[in-house]
Amino acid sequence: GFWWTVLAAGLPCCCLSAFMCRSCCCVDYFEDVLKENERLDKLNVADRTIVFHGKVLPGTGKCVCSWPGKYESAWDALVAGSRTGDISAAVVFLPPGSIHFGRHDAIPKGEKLQGRCWCVPLYGEQKPWGCRWWTN
Questions:
Q1: Pairwise CA distance, residues 113 & 130, whole Å
Q2: Cβ count within 10 A of residue 115
Q3: Residue 128 carries which DSSP code?
Q4: Contact of 65 with 92, CB cutoff 8 Å
Q5: Sheet of strand 88-93, all strands in order from the earlier edge strand to the far edge
Q6: pLDDT (tens digit, 9 = 90+) per residue, 42-100?
């Protein structure tokens, strides 16, 4: 029975060692897969989010500079057209919870404008949605 003892004790040890080694190697792989999926999810959310940083595009002719909330149904068309370069849109929309919402930036002293932040020259007073969008 020597071979039977070696098989009974050695086989589980070999299997356990192989499983542990594979698990250690796979952890790095799974972490990489998770990080890549997280990156792709963030890109998907950025594509579908209501946050919009408009920009004026040269050569597009007309430019949308303001967007009343009552025309909510056409917002998606404006954003899609701006992202493809068909529409120039200088509209910025930052809903609560977005990264720049409620953030304020100080006015540089060289501007010689009144107020602690850009809200004052833009709106006449500090606003809860902030003015960081102006400096970005």
A1: 17
A2: 18
A3: T
A4: no
A5: 52-55, 88-93, 63-64
A6: 666 555 555 566 666 677 666 776 666 667 677 777 777 777 777 777 667 777 777 88
Give CA–CA dist 78/83, Å, rounded: 9
Residue bearing tokens 């003015």: 131
DSSP 8-state assignment for residue 108: P
Question: Using CA atoms, how far apart are residues 127 and 119, in angstroms rounded to an integer?
Answer: 6
pTM of the model: 0.44
How far is residue 34 from each of residues 44, 46, 110, 117, measured CA to CA in Å? Answer: 15, 18, 47, 40
Tokens 């060692």 map to which residue? 17
Q: Which residue, 84, 78, 83, is CA-closest to 64?
A: 78
Select from 99, 53, 114 the least CA-distant residue to 123.
114
DSSP conformation class of 107: P
Q: What is the DSSP letter of 53?
A: E
Q: How far apart are alpha carbons 23 and 77 in whole angstroms? A: 48
Task: Judge whether 131 and 125 are in contact, CB under 8 Å.
Answer: no
